[in-house]
Amino acid sequence: MKKFLYTLLMATAVFSLAACQQQEKPKKAKYVFYFITDGTGVNTILGQEMMQYELENGPGKWGRVPLCVTQFPVISVASTYSHSHGVTDSASSGTALACGVKTSNGMIGEGPDSSAVYSIATWAHELGIPTAVGTSVCINHATPASFYAHADSRKQYYKIGSQLAEAGFDFYGGSDINKACDSTLTCYQIAENGGYTIARGVLGYDSLKSKADKMLLLQRQEESDVDAFSLPYYLDAKPGQMTVIDILRAQIDFLYNYKGGKDKGFFIMNEIGAKVDFGCHSNDAAAAFREVAVLDSCIRVAYDFYLQHPDETLILLTADHETGGLVLAKRNSYVHNLQILQYQTASKDEVTRHFQALRAQTGNKVTWEQVQAVLKQDFSFWDKVDLSEDEEKDLKELYKKSFVGKMPNEKNLYSSSEPMAAEAVRIIDAKAHVSWSTGGHSAGLVPCYVCGVGAEQFMGHNDNAEIPIKIARIAGYK
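^ thats the sequence. predicted structure below, dont judge the formating
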């Protein structure tokens, strides 16, 4: 009897252990959302949250209104240095985030020895998993390019754009293809020859999605004629223009409903915060913070999907680097006035266009009163934003140098600004108690927000090249 009971107990124990091991078997991420927000440091995210708190509670009230992404269960950081520099550029950091390899600044999808390296999107695609790459700038810009192309210089736009079809992913989306016509055969023709349907705008996507085997979604031609390099800033966008949220929704719809993602799962990469970087290069706090709000709207779209598939979905947002050396403080001051940024209703680039339009209309004989009208319209100067005597005096002196005399524009990595537009942004940033230490990148840590299957594997300090390796492990990619 004792022998029988012992045998029964052992059998029960073995069965219980097997059941426990079965339960502890790690879940696999069937649906992967890999989000990158370019040029975004911890302060860039916090600045939007604190500004929103002031907008809701009034000036002199300090706190934060949490974004959806900052409420994710895992919040950690990542370092961004490259193989060649302590401060990375978007090409080397994009390659690290895409391929898990540290490389030299300027290189796309190549190791420091110029050998081709392949991205997590390629790993997923080769397993037959529906795959998409998107961005709020041109699709052959450094970060999205790192997921499908190989080039020893990020400036080789035509070479990069021509490799889009060769990689063969199911969906690409962005503002357009930069420098697509440097050869007899354009990048558009190469894509079409590779089986891609080119859709322009949301209506174009809706009319073509059911007929397309592979999709390349770009903004409408009339928008590209104005700026093919990127989608408009949130501050400048007009009704009907395509947004990065539209691109993300199309990625999900196309992969899930038309490419078998419901059964196979999918891999989606989207550089949802590319324009944050543009705003930070321009040292334009209002534009950058509003782009953070846009990227969080994208996160909410993905989170809604997660709520429907909580045991099968992984969402991760990180940044390729910090831009601008943003400091949420003014020298020797312990208060903020971030709510004043609400009165800036156009990006520095758009304000520049307003002044350039004035120059064209008047034959470059712009009056001080006309300059004032633009500053009132775009910044509420002399209306809701008071100027000191010194500030107004400085603006008048700048008017004489810039509009009466000749003064060169101020340049940053992506744009050239009218001196008056640049000075107006400096004034309102100073009133908000926001300061910048550079117009370029910094080596500052960037955030890493994670939700869903395997999120705990990103706790602590990550190196950017570790992130795609961890995602691949969680999703079962080889």
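Residues 1-23 have pLDDT under 50 and may be disordered.
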